[in-house]
Amino acid sequence: MTDLTIESDRAAQPSAVNVHRGLLFVLAIVTVYACLHAGFRLLASDVLGEDDVYDIVFTQELRIGYDAFPRQPPLFNWVLWAVQQVLGPSLESFLLIKYTALVASVGFLYLAARRALDNTLFALLTVESMALIYSISWRFHEGFTHEVGAMVAVLATTWLVLRVLQEGRPVDFIGLAVTMGLGFLTEPAYIVFLLTFFVAAALQPGMRRALMQPQLLLALALAIAVASPYWLWLLDEPRRMRWLTGIWHNGWSFNLSGIWDAVRGPVAYLSPLLFILPVVFPGWLKTAWADLKRSPLVCEKPDYELLVLHAGGLAFAASILGALIFEIRGLAVHVLMPLYLSSVIWMFGVAKRSMTDPGPVKWFGRLAIAIALIAFVARMANLYIMDPVCQTCRWGIPYSTLAQEMRARGFDDNGTIISLEHELTGNLRQLFPNATVIARAYPNFTPDGADWTRGRVAYVWDPQMSIKKAQSYLRFLLPKGIEAKDAELVRVPWQHLWRETGYRTSTWYLLIVEKGRKKRIVNTGRSNRLGL
């Protein structure tokens, strides 16, 4: 350490006062941040995107597990289902869950960092660093569903394990048990995180004595009980377990892409923060290298920063083994988030110990705020200007106008929709909350009790799917004498704040059939008539 050591502020003033003030400050700032992003998102468009379009279809009913995605634990779906009982199947329900989870995650990160670093200032910087992780500062706002629960679980677990190590009260073990049980139901990677975190703690003699208590076994048993309904459902049919490994049905083969995914995982997830810290804090690399060379086996006194470092290192090793043994590959960067999210605590512990003057703290704070503002402006441009800022520009796709066209052609809001494209399926579910929505192609989901043999049924799909392929998906769902080629190609104009309506268009194939009376609706422009 240098002469200008950042001293523990525990001695300066009561720790509880510092923690509470810092926590309130963090929660207030992040709540404002969340409200700004959610509010402007609602004003821009109600179109659902990415993972939201899957889950809104699944939550037509509450299930222990969902066969369309058996590898995905159902906690997010359960919470979404509960929220949608009040708000309905809408964008608002997703935003409420997502940003509530963000506020909770930041709160737990601050509490965990405050305990590990014993310094309020660097705990605040740790929270601020989330603005410098691309997966959180940008991708989080549109691409996360189940991952938001994993974020909360990982950071809450980190905080509670530190509480157990430092205080070990019964209430800490109970909180840890509940958190672990819910964490098991968020993302499969949470289990890897938990195991590596416990192993890293057990490597330090001082921590091993504090952690290896009978209460921990009871906590694990309670956590398993919380998650057991889903796990029993998963084991009930062998096909639901095939996602675990390719060995069981394809045989082992060396897969370079999976190894590359694992190797680049921590760098890709923690970027650009990982490259910014050594620049802002000049001694960062030297201090980090010294930590990497330290052995946990000689730590008689608990070293919480080293715990976080070694947990991340073990998680990295586990991901390599997963690629080698189980051929795990093709994972998006944010799927690896549970393995490395808490690593930022160690990264700022290194920054604290490498400081020689307070200047870097000011520079980092200003940089993080500047990047957060730039990201916010860029996202607003993406939402409101659209092309050429974005390419897909899914927020501008006129699903609501398509819904109007469907109603104009005779579709009943209480009818049945059979869709062959996931983004279309999810958005129609939002626009027709009383309809039964059946998803075909990918994913394949049919609500219990769905009846496509009576009433008005709308078949709709993207023209990127050929008529022939659509017929193969619909052949058992179409009435006798009607085929996919009978569908009408509906062209729908885009609308914009200042551009001329129709500057872009979207097209869909649409076929509306009235079943039960052997009639189908014949589309003639915007007029409707029943044809035999």
Care to give the gist of this entry?
The protein is α/β, with parallel strands linked by helices. It has two domains: 15-382, no CATH class; 397-531, no CATH class.
Give an overview in words.
The chain is an alpha/beta fold and 532 residues long. The chain has 2 domains: 15-382, no CATH class; 397-531, no CATH class. It contains 22 helices and 7 strands. It has helices at residues 15-44, 52-58, 75-87, 91-117, 120-128, 134-143, 146-166, 170-184, 189-203, 205-211, 214-236, 247-250, 256-270, 273-280, 284-293, 304-325, 337-340, 343-354, 359-384, 399-408, 422-431, 467-474, and strands spanning 416-419, 436-439, 455-461, 488-493, 505-515, 519-524, 527-531. Strands 1, 2, 3, 4, 5, 6 and 7 form a 7-stranded mixed sheet that branches. A hairpin with a 3-residue loop joins strand 5 (505-515) and strand 6. The radius of gyration is 26 Å and the shape is globular. The N and C termini lie far apart (87 Å).
